[in-house]
Design goal:
Largest sheet: 2 strands, antiparallel
Strand content: under 5%
Order of helices and strands: HHHHHEHEHHHHHHHH
Length: about 325
């Protein structure tokens, strides 16, 4: 029987979105944080905290909405800790972010192993969670050939991520509060001189951005059917999200494209053999690529993006001028 080549390509496109949409949550959340002038390298840990608390509480409540809310609040609390240390106490942002990653992963395994020792909630036992995470086809668009199932037949959290990215783009570009936030990230001294409360803007947007990251972690837990093991659900996605911020030029809408591009290489690890079997003449070489290279490929691409960006300064860069610099009001 001849292999359904169209079906293989459709499945590949679908998997790009399914497996990589957490990158969009992490990237958009980090963009919002960085637009306030704060550099948070704790994305990995924040996503892990949002994942474990969102999944456990969501299952016990048997509610996807509760899980999303708890994941957001857990991430926001991590953001509050980061803001307290870096905005109020003026701690080094790089060190604080790295510490937050270690702290978040520690919380993930501490809470997860503790709950598992008593009774781990299996996702399939909670109908509202399982059904809430099921695919929802978008009328008409889901019927389009190739891209219909690949792009327009997904679960609620996929659509939510895209909506959040678009809303954040509009917020940063088209609202007075968003423009003030960008001013805080560009020149906090000038923003302070015209009456903008720097601390308030930083606190609010750091917490909001970290809350979005937490939802991305929750998605990863659900996408792995809540199977808890010795490896973290996040699996390096937080670090890739930090690089995607640069790739997207601090633009939430461009982060959608960036997620798809990075997701393409990341999904080859899962679908490479299927593509090779469906198109042996043109893609047969994919079957000969070692699985270890597929696993490393997203991080190799991440490193290339970081190196290329540091060498070539682009005109019209969205990089906030005061990113990573603590603001001392007395020195303005």
């Amino acid at each position: 029987m001849e292999m359904d080549k169209l079906g293989v390509v459709t499945t590949f496109v679908h998997n790009i979105v399914v497996y990589n949409i957490p990158l969009l949550y992490g990237t958009v959340g980090e963009i919002l944080v960085e637009k306030s002038g704060s550099l948070n390298l704790g994305v990995e840990g924040i996503m892990a905290v949002g994942a474990i608390f969102g999944y456990i509480v969501g299952c016990y409540a048997n509610s996807l909405a509760v899980g999303i809310l708890v994941a957001f609040l857990a991430g926001a609390l991590c953001g509050l800790l980061f803001a307290a240390l870096t905005v109020s106490l003026q701690a080094n942002q790089n060190i604080t972010g790295l510490t937050l990653t270690t702290f978040g992963l520690g919380v993930y395994f501490f809470v997860g192993n503790g709950v598992k020792a008593i009774s781990w909630p299996a996702m399939n036992d909670y109908a509202n969670i399982k059904n809430g995470f099921a695919d929802i086809p978008i009328p008409f668009l889901s019927q389009l050939p190739l891209v219909g199932k690949g792009l327009f037949t997904h679960n609620l959290l996929v659509y939510l991520a895209v909506v959040i990215a678009i809303v954040m783009w509009w917020y940063l570009r088209g609202t007075r509060t968003g423009l003030r936030l960008r001013a805080v990230g560009e020149n906090p001294g000038a923003a302070d001189s015209v009456g903008i409360n720097i601390k308030r803007y930083k606190y609010i947007h750091i917490c909001l951005g970290c809350g979005i990251m937490g939802i991305g972690g929750y998605y990863m837990g659900l996408n792995m059917s809540g199977s808890f093991s010795s490896s973290c659900w996040i699996n390096g996605y937080g670090w890739i999200a930090v690089a995607l911020v640069i790739f997207a030029n601090w633009n939430p809408v461009m982060a959608i494209l960036g997620t798809f591009v990075f997701g393409f290489f990341n999904t080859l690890r899962v679908s490479g053999s299927s593509l090779a079997a469906a198109f042996p003449d043109s893609l047969g070489w994919l079957a000969a690529v070692p699985s270890q290279l597929y696993q490393a490929l997203p991080f190799i691409i991440t490193a290339i993006v970081l190196v290329a960006t540091s060498i070539r300064k682009r005109e019209g860069s969205g990089l906030p001028a005061a990113l990573g610099l603590n603001y001392f009001r007395e020195e303005r």
